[in-house]
């Protein structure tokens, strides 16, 4: 569904260049529900904006559902955004129309594309648990309920892929669990691919796969140890839970590059270069041996 290889995004202003993505690789299968985690400034939103067609990549390859987002024409981009992608943002509810009902809000994007499917709009509101509230005006709903209407809206044009940027950023834990359960149900029901960007490791534990981004590169992948474990229904979550539930792998790109965590490099005193040995089974990276010799 999503394929990025060597993806680069450079933001240029008058006298400064920021390399937000510096050759990122990522593949997401059709129907997968996965999360991207990373510190502030690591490039998560930049990646999501490119995948959503809101921003253009600078270089590299990026394709989504057969669309080449590097070469796509502006007119095609409008069609791509309308048909392929659904968005859920942290404060999505702000974009809803308060004087319309939940149902009318869901039908609004359908109107823009010329085909209102009331039965599907109702079905969506049922999926997000608002069957009994669909004729309520938006301002009569709570913040969490409004966020669920926003999720129904994001699905109204039957996109193949849902992109969610901190979707639970401004709601309480119970609502957050509810939203993640909705994502899981919709993912199972219609097989939609879901990509969630978050800081929140507890969310990350509720998806099949987590990809960590560091400095604009995919650095580590966490795969769920037991794919049948339904984490959405699990209570509680401990520190380090991600490691308990998922197995961590370092991402190695096609030409053999990988990222070594800064803490590890500092702990063994590796700066600009290192020594690497292969003993037939393991690859061992240490502080440069020749330099150690020079010091003494
Ligand atoms: N429009 C822009 N112009 C210039 N620099 C930008 C722009 N957008 C993002 N950046 C820079 O690109 C880098 C990556 O930013 P990005 O917003 O993708 O990070 P993030 O991981 O989503 O962070 P956060 O979790 O804080 O939202 C940062 O250094 C940021 O300052």
Write the layout of secondary structure elements.
Blueprint: E1 2-12, E2 17-28, E3 33-37, H1 44-51, E4 59-64, E5 67-68, H2 74-83, E6 85-89, H3 102-112, H4 118-127, H5 143-154, E7 161-165, H6 173-190, E8 193-198, H7 201-204, E9 209-214, E10 217-224, H8 241-245, E11 246-250, H9 262-268, E12 275-278, E13 283-286, H10 289-295
Parallel strand pairs: 3-8, 3-9, 6-7, 7-8
Antiparallel strand pairs: 1-2, 1-4, 4-5, 9-10, 10-11, 12-13
Bound molecules: adenosine-5'-triphosphate (ATP).
Structural features, described:
The chain has 296 residues and is α/β, with parallel strands linked by helices. Among the domains are: 1-31 and 38-84 and 194-259, 3-Layer(aba) Sandwich (Rossmann fold), CATH 3.40.50; 260-296, no CATH class. It contains 10 helices and 13 strands. It has helices at residues 44-51, 74-83, 102-112, 118-127, 143-154, 173-190, 201-204, 241-245, 262-268, 289-295; strands at 2-12, 17-28, 33-37, 59-64, 67-68, 85-89, 161-165, 193-198, 209-214, 217-224, 246-250, 275-278, 283-286. Strand 7, helix 6 and strand 8 form a beta-alpha-beta unit. Helix 3 (102-112) crosses helix 4 (118-127). The N and C termini lie far apart (55 Å). The site of adenosine-5'-triphosphate has 11 residues, from strand 2 and helix 1.
